[in-house]
Amino acid sequence: ALGGLIKIRGDRCWRDLTCMDFHYETQPVPNPVAYYLHHSPWWFHRFETLSNHFIELLVPFFLFLGRRACIIHGVLQILFQAVLIISGNLSFLNWLTMVPSLACFDDATLGFLFPSGPGSLKDRVLQMQRDIRGARPKPRFGSVVRRAANVSLGVLLAWLSVPVVLNLLSSRQVMNTHFNSLHIVNTYGAFGSITKERAEVILQGTASSNASAPDTVWEDYEFKCKPGDPSRRPCLISPYHYRLDWLMWFAAFQTYEHNDWIIHLAGKLLASDAEALSLLAHNPFAGRPPPRWVRGEHYRYKFSRPGGRHAAEGKWWVRKRIGAYFPPLSLEELRPYFRDRGWPLPGPL
Questions:
Q1: What average pLDDT does the segment 130-136 reach?
Q2: Residue span of the signal peptide, if any (predicted)?
Q3: 182 shares its domain with 212
């Protein structure tokens, strides 16, 4: 319910049902399925958005409506998370979200998965349950302590949840924050707002001594999963998570002043740092001296249209240069920048 409320109160596109027109193309790390889903008919995107609201805003309350409603909740939530896993590389988030829903399925619900003949596992478990009910053992000290601990934990969680519930009911709901130092009860919600255009930062290097010469040849570094070469197929890595690729998505709709770590990365590329290069898929200077200059270029990316000219050329993406993200940098120029921030100087700096 938290994620649903954050969406409804956040981006207008969640209210006018148009967010899914953009999500597949602009999500952090799209996969091949996202390419085809992005080109679905408009009515399908409206249906997706309505389904999202139904599952995130209404289905959670099925937990309080009895056994059958709880089972329906479990089925819908697991199917919903499976769709999210198939349609994007959202790391292990959706896999973990499935786990609580497994509690919705009791023994009677899952019984069909096990053989039921005489002497079978299911038959033995049922006999054990009948024996336990018939014995009615007296409560032991350990069970009393455990029950007291469970009640105490429930009271603690209820108390810690008070500010969370107040935040939930507030018209100024805060997303992705905590309300106590223990971080036990928090608020979380993904994609409260949807970016409408996809920007990418492309890191390039050159061996030329003059970075500003018009005939300077710049070569692209390729990341393991994020869009770069328009002809490279989107990757499929869930539940694995390439954190650097994810951070590059955030950096692309900000500036390098907000993400000075990207200048740190540029310095390591100038020094051909082995650890930094291991995070990339392609180093254009492999087996050669390191680049003399590294720069960041800002591009706008869009999925190519199936059957269109770019798709016929084998391109998954169409990109257009926006401008410079950060100017050409050399190791010598980065010396004071690194020292001011207390960063170790890479390579021969």
A1: 68
A2: none
A3: no
Residue 88 contacts residue 31 (beta carbons within 8 Å):
yes
Domain identity same for 73 and 172 = yes
Query: Does the pLDDT of residue 332 top 70, yes or no?
Result: yes
Question: Could you tell me if residue 118 is inside a domain?
Answer: no
Portion of the chain with pLDDT greater than 70, in percent: 92
Domain shared by 168 and 143, yes or no: yes
Residues 251, 182, single domain; the answer is: no
Average pLDDT over residues 237-257: 91
- Is the separation of the CB atoms in 38 and 221 below 8 Å? no
Q: What is the pLDDT of residues 275-305, one digit of tens each?
A: 999 999 999 999 899 999 999 999 999 999 9
Cβ–Cβ contacts within 10 Å for residue 92, how many?
A: 12
CA pair distance 230, 310, nearest whole angstrom: 9
Half-sphere exposure (Cβ direction) of 229: Cα atoms closer than 13 Å: 16
Task: Examine the domain organization and report whether 240 and 281 are in the same domain.
Answer: yes
Asked if the model's pLDDT at residue 121 lies above 80, the reply is: no
CA-to-CA distance for 24 and 191, rounded, in angstroms? 12
Residues 172 and 207 in one domain: no
Structure tokens belonging to residue 70:
């709880």
Number of domains in the chain: 2
Where in the sequence is the domain holding 260, given as residue range(s)? 198-341
Between the alpha carbon of residue 254 and those of residues 12, 27, 175, 250, 326, the distances in Å are: 21, 15, 20, 7, 12
Looking at the domain assignment, is residue 111 inside a domain? Answer: no
List, for residues 55-71, the tens digit of each pLDDT value: 988 998 898 888 899 99
Q: Which residue has the tokens 């596109």?
A: 13
Q: Are residues 203 and 176 in the same domain?
A: no
Half-sphere exposure of 141 (CA within 13 A, CB side): 0
Report the chain's mean pLDDT, rounded to a whole number. Answer: 87
Is residue 168 predicted with pLDDT exceeding 80? no
Q: Are residues 155 and 205 in the same domain?
A: no
Q: Which of 187, 218, 246 is the last residue of a domain?
A: 187
In angstroms, the CA 185 to CA 179 distance is 7
Structure tokens at 247: 């951070």
Give the DSSP letter of residue 1. -
